[in-house]
Amino acid sequence: MRWSSAAIALASAKSFVVALDPVSALGNKFFNKDGSQFFIKGIAYQLRPTDPLVDTDQCERDAKLMTELGTNTIRVYHVDPSADHDGCMKAFDDAGIYVLADLDTFDTYIIPENNYWNKTKFERYAEVLDTFQKYDNLLGVFVGNENIATKDDSPTAPYLKAAARDMKAYRDAQGYRDIPIGYSAADILQLRPMLQDYLTCGGNSSETVDFFSLNSYSWCDPSTYTESTYDQLELYAKNFPVPIFLSETGCIVPGPRAWDDQDAIFGPQMVNDWSGAIIYEWIQEENSYGIITYAPAGQPAGPDVEGGFLRKGTPTPKQPDFSALKSKWATNTPAGVHKSDYNPSKVSTRACPTSTAGGWWQVNGDVDLPTLGQILAVNTRTHSAEVATETETATETVVSVTASDGAVVATTMAITAPPSTATDGSSSATTSGPSSATTTSGGSTDKRITSFGAGVVGAVLALAILL
Q1: Which position among 60, 68, 113, 248 bears the catalytic label?
Q2: Span of the secretion signal (predicted)?
Q3: Active site residue 234
């Protein structure tokens, strides 16, 4: 039987798929190659702790359903730079889906309780960038995820900024395209405004992040723009100097999720300053945030089972969450601004935040950033600081910080050590999901660490203390 020309074209459609062009950042917008503005409609996608982008068949199944949903971006939290990702990256590229990837691996997370940014971490971040830079559908990379989440964590900020500085320098030295490099923050009211300003302040673009994103669960349906405090998120994002978006969202209390926050994000209230949102998360697991399942909960132990949940197979939409999100994204289609009509000089770089006595933000102004292997003692009273060089074995370094009047105002005993890996390969980082820290932006009380992350946090922090 002869096929019609239409049938032949349909059967061969996949071979004619047009590859995605890289997305670029300018001012506080993302732009497609044709100059149209790019808005993120994303899904957090991790399936397995170490790398979700190694099973081509599974990626193809998931990408197909994601396309039906209206997804154009996924976020992955941990990847193995030594693995082959060609199949999965092509599967998502063919489906019109970009990838945002975290650079840290399970043993390179920047831990507030043991701050350092050293050659080993740099090299591990570089391995991830080397592996993924060749894919045009790599939208961007994160240097960290919720590293700063409690009152005493803000001294970690210079290390995150140093990581962004060094990875941008490495990217440029290697001749890679300008892949956006940014940070994903916990939504902590006492920290968020200062952190987003700090990571973009100072006037030196080589030291600032290319985008800032936020994990926020403050909109819990039924809610409103003001009740959820999204109006406050918009206030702090107004004319922000780099693209800003929600890197996690999707409160499940009380449920089901109606996704009304998407109307605000892509509507006139926020669309001029925000670049979209990533929904947490794709797969249903113990925390109940998933929008698909591969099988009912309580599966027996097996190679593709984690925590009683199957992580492989044909994805089945979880209702009504899946259909509700599909409907929202189908109607949320902002045109944005064309690159040729956009004037980035209208966005504002804010002043570096200053510390206050007893406050949550302890980094005073535009402090010097640590270089590789340095332990920075941040002076919260002046802009000066002294630095100790990190050694390759655990040592004790006394760092005295002197105020402008010559008085010693702080003496820090810095315990330094090279990176180490727990025997189970775990990390202090939560794999993904709502922060375990308390958000004061007025929303969800359901702030649980995911099943992947909860078990590893204590182990690695204990290891850090022992070192």
Answers
A1: 248
A2: 1-19
A3: no
